[in-house]
Amino acid sequence: MALTGLVLVGFVFVHMAGNLQMFAGAETINAYAHGLQSLPLFLLWGGRLFLLAVVVVHAWTAAKLCAENREARPKANAVETTKRAGFDSLRMGLTGSVLFAFIVFHILHYTTLNVFPEYKQFTTSTGAPMGEEMHDVYRMVLAGFGVEWITTIYFLCMFLLCRHLTHGVSSMFQSLGLRSESWREKLDHAAALYGWVIFIGFISVPVAVMLQKHGPVKVFDQAAFDQAVPASISSEGEVPTQ
Q1: Total-model pTM
Q2: Domain holding 35: CATH number?
Q3: What tens digit of pLDDT does each residue of 82-130 get?
Q4: What's the number of CA atoms in the CB half-sphere (13 Å) around residue 190?
Q5: How far apart are CA 120 and CA 168, in angstroms?
Q6: What is the 3-state secondary structure (H, E, C) of 85-113?
Q7: Is CB count within 10 Å lower at the N or C end of the chain?
Q8: Which residue, among 221, 200, 198, 199, has the nearest Cα to 209 in the 3D structure?
């Protein structure tokens, strides 16, 4: 479980760094997305299937550990006391289950575009190396986070991810035999810091979208914003392509 956790911790950071390229503008984020989509199929889908397998193995291992813990103590104690274990450690199964459901939704939302199929109509040549037409990830992300309920779900799930990582990263060091009693507090603080960095990094884009939508803050290209965000809440579900 520690090894799958290590892979996922690394992926979460890389994914956050990729998302933050939204602040660099349409050309940067679209070029980044185009580069990923242009990878050979065996690399692109091999990487996706590998990450999916890691998530499934991580979830299965966690479920197995929970089941073993219940079997080891089939009858609850008359008085429950815990030492060192806080809310995060006691609710890892719950937060993990919610995050697994969110991952499925996130893939359907931004990768396969099943939640809002109209996002497929967003096209652009901005960021394309040869000036060819490609999917406009910049406007798609603006449209997605321009929907209040999407941003609310995202915000809550990123908070749960933060709490999950806070305990998980610290426990990972212990499982790998790298956490001694003298280093326990330092590693706990480092894990908490990492969790909050991930939380702030991930929510910065949706928060900026909401601030631009409802306030005077202008972070993203206004022309692209005006095309994407009103469309994201259109009752007809039509997305302008120009």
Answers
A1: 0.82
A2: 1.20.1300
A3: 445 454 555 777 888 899 999 999 999 999 999 999 999 999 998 888 8
A4: 11
A5: 36
A6: CCHHHHCHHHHHHHHHHHHHHHHHHHHCC
A7: C
A8: 221
